[in-house]
Amino acid sequence: MAELAKEAGITVRTLRFYRERKLLPPPRREGRIAWYGDAHLARLRTIAALLERGHTLGGIAELIGAWESGRDVGELLGLESAIATPWSEETPVRLAPEELADSFGADVTAENLAAALDIGYIAVDGEHPETVVHVSRRLLDASAALVREGVPLSEVLAAGRAVRTHVDALADLFTVLIRAHVIDPHAHDLTPGEAARMAEALDRLRPLAKNVVDAELSMAMDRRVRAELDAWLKERAEAGAASDPGADDA
């Protein structure tokens, strides 16, 4: 066991854990001696590769179980790829200090930079510490436009934090919905071709979630702006009446 762990680049404790989780087949035994071979080493290297791809040990156990029962691991990996494909299409932007100043002027303060880091809007470029990387060109452009219109950057960042909370809740809603009705009903007994059909379904659902949120937000903005406009007009009318003492006599 120690020799196998060393060859695989893991600890003996990790190897024992894999055996307990049935990720590794038992060794061939001769008396009290346990013999591990090339197949065990190959399995450990496969586990390491899948972990690097972001699989959990539970997911790896499912793949190994599928392979051992003759199911198509390629289909399962295709389904995993469809699930893990990023939903966002955001383009990160690398910014030098002068570019930040061009976009936000005097609002580039230590407090605002700390808030942007905390939200996850920006990160320090490890290879070029003098620059920062903004997570999204669209968010960067929208933030800069709001600042140009007179909204303080601190308020933009506070609004971004609040929006993040709401969209996380929306993502939870759609994730639970898709898992309950698209993935879970077929996940435990995938028939030939079922994983491919599920992957195709996920591709079709991907834009639908965005469309629902966009439509609902647009309609909500219509309702909220109309209510705000009505309140503003009412306040103006009441202020005008109060400033004209003769209005009641007329």
From TrEMBL:
PANTHER family: HTH MERR-TYPE DOMAIN-CONTAINING PROTEIN (PTHR30204:SF93), REDOX-CYCLING DRUG-SENSING TRANSCRIPTIONAL ACTIVATOR SOXR (PTHR30204). Residues 1-66 form the HTH merR-type domain. Pfam families: MerR_1. It comes from Streptantibioticus parmotrematis. PROSITE patterns: HTH_MERR_2. The keyword DNA-binding applies. Gene3D superfamilies: 1.10.1660.10. This is MerR family transcriptional regulator. The lineage of its organism: Bacteria, Bacillati, Actinomycetota, Actinomycetes, Kitasatosporales. It comes from the Bacteria. Keywords: DNA-binding. Coiled coil: none annotated.
